[in-house]
Amino acid sequence: MGLVQTASNSPYRYQDAHLDVDFVRKCALVDSHRLVLTRKEYDLLALLVENAGEIIPRNVLLLRVWGYSSEIRTRTLDVHVRRLRKKLGSYSEQYIETIFGIGYRFQPFRANQRFQTGVPTSPLAASA
Amino acid sequence: MGLVQTASNSPYRYQDAHLDVDFVRKCALVDSHRLVLTRKEYDLLALLVENAGEIIPRNVLLLRVWGYSSEIRTRTLDVHVRRLRKKLGSYSEQYIETIFGIGYRFQPFRANQRFQTGVPTSPLAASA
DNA sequence: GTGGAGTTGTAAAACTTTTGTAAAAACCAC
DNA sequence: GTGGTTTTTACAAAAGTTTTACAACTCCAC
């Protein structure tokens, strides 16, 4: 097992300066430290990371990770996001953004974080 | 090729700092001490060791060692894992990991256990 | 700016599922 | 039958997930 081929844009793996997600082995590392995630936590992270940069509405997350149809009112998603952020440690703020009224977005790590600092980017994508 | 090939990666044998499994003679040693295993115990250990480092789902273990199709609900596997661990003594924790909701994994001995220390590694493999 | 409705964050409890364990029962070869 | 092995049973313990209850925050109308 030699080094890794720059897999940065491989569909099987996500990598940036601090985070490394292996979609095949279904595991993740933060600064070369293994992230111990439960199934739901991993599923949630993976879905967000696979769509890095894109806003994923709550209802989509709830559907894809939990199989919940809309209409279901629950705080489970929030609780899981919280636990994920906790495990991501200090980078969590930068990685997982909350898009008020819509959902969440995973943002790849950027050393120079001057631009989209906290900017929820064009709000609205869904009609909710 | 040629040359000594320390049996470490021979398909007929597994060896690490403390454990030695001879797949031909179907016997195992722990710190040069013979492990007295019953048939099922050996089969289970062998299957895990042959796939060292990989997670083996419960249903695969039950199929390969017991011939059970899925759908069969039994605690036999757990009982055998327990007896195996008991016989492996103090190393058992390090060797046989439980992957919650999925199965078990045999992990080769590592002197420097800094990395995956007790880390159940990313769970998840199946969707349920 | 303020206020309020609605949304998200958080901690802890409740709940569900999975795994560990001990002991007894069932098996099996001799 | 006896001794050893394997499976079942019945719980206990652990891990994971969801709910609850409320605090904190955001956005928009005014």
Global structural class of chain A:
alpha+beta
Oligomerization state:
homodimer
Biggest sheet details of chain A: 4 strands, antiparallel
Question: How much strand content do the residues of chain A show?
Answer: 15-25%
Q: Return the CATH class of chain A.
A: Mainly Alpha
Query: What is the percent of helical residues of chain A?
Result: 25-40%
Described by the principal axes of the CA atoms, the overall outline of chain A is globular
CATH-defined superfamily of chain A = Winged helix-like DNA-binding domain superfamily/Winged helix DNA-binding domain
Instruction: Return the domain count of chain A.
Output: 1
CATH topology of chain A: Arc Repressor Mutant, subunit A
CATH architecture of chain A: Orthogonal Bundle
Report strand order across the widest sheet of chain A: 1-2-3-4
Rg of chain A, rounded, reads 15 Å
Give the CA-CA distance, first to last residue of chain A. Answer: 48 Å
Interface with most residues: A-B, 13 and 11 residues
Low-confidence stretches of chain A: 1-7, 114-128
Number of strands of chain A: 7
Mean pLDDT of chain A: 84
How many helices of chain A? Answer: 4
